[in-house]
TrEMBL record:
Matching SUPFAM superfamilies: Winged helix' DNA-binding domain
This protein's name: MarR family transcriptional regulator
Coiled-coil stretches: none
Single GO MF annotation: DNA-binding transcription factor activity
Top-level taxon: Bacteria
Domain HTH marR-type: 1-139
Keywords annotated in UniProt: DNA-binding, Transcription, Transcription regulation
Record carries keyword Coiled coil: no
Pfam family, one: MarR
Keyword presence, Transcription: yes
Amino acid sequence: MASAEQLNSFLVDMFGRINKIEERVMAEGLGSAVSITEIHIIEKIGALEPIRMSEVARSIGVTLATLTVACDKLEAKDLVRRSRDKSDRRVVNVTLTDKGRAAYEYHRAFHDRMIASVMDTLSPEQAAILAQSLEKLQDFFQQEEAGMGGAANG
């Protein structure tokens, strides 16, 4: 069984690697650089579009002002489109462009490959233990986040 120090080292290493690899894979797939934050914004929009800017900001734990700056960059890269809601002009909705939809699908495919690379090697019992362990880790992060007063307002 792995020691606590080995597990800590593994988790720190993996979190950093996943972000770097995601950025690199997305840049190769799109032909231009996309930050990990931009990738996750695209992911939220693609899963729920059309979606209010305020909902995206809340779901990723940033202020609306921060999201607006990020969406300015994503619009310049032709990945998202913002529009006023027809029934309430105060509301700004955001959707993916065709290029943004391609980025979203490319990102999903990366995650599918990542998960399959693990799940394909595990027995059902091992997969259940892994899922339970990761749920405990998720619970820890949620408790830590709640202790900080909720999501960061980056």
